[in-house]
Amino acid sequence: MIEAFLSKLKDQQDFDESLEISPYAKMMGFRLVRQDGQLTTVMKFHGDLVGSPFPPALHGGTVAALMEMSALMQLVWNVDQIHIPKTIDITIDYLRSGKPEDTFSKARIYRQGRRYATLHTEAWQSDPAKPIASAMLHFQLG
User: Fold this and answer.
1) CB–CB of 99/45 below 8 Å?
2) What are phi and psi of 126, to 5 degrees?
3) Which of 46, 77, 85, 122 could form a disulfide bond with 131, CB atoms 3.0-4.6 angstroms apart?
4) 85 near 124, Cβ under 8 Å?
5) What is the set of domains in the chain, with CATH numbers?
């Protein structure tokens, strides 16, 4: 399902598409955006994402889910394979509190072999130079 979704997008230079590839991605409000050749995953803000009401802050699990989805989308985008990569490990550094607003994430492949891939991703809100979290992820390929 992910491969079919991404294959139709690979022909487009720029796009902004809702990631309705799974009920989970739809519920989280994920979008996939490509501008200037770079893939960005966006989590549109809604009230269910708040973990702390006073002061309002995003739940850490929602930020982790965004970064995992961002890394998975980048990996599937770059690797031509039939099977969906399986997450092995995620190490997250929470750098600051997430505000109740849209959150963005970009991932880059740090190292890729035949069986495993390591990616680094960052999540930010209004300023990409001020990430709210970063993560290293390991995936098992096919």
Assistant:
1) no
2) -85, -25
3) 122
4) no
5) 2-140 (3.10.129.10)
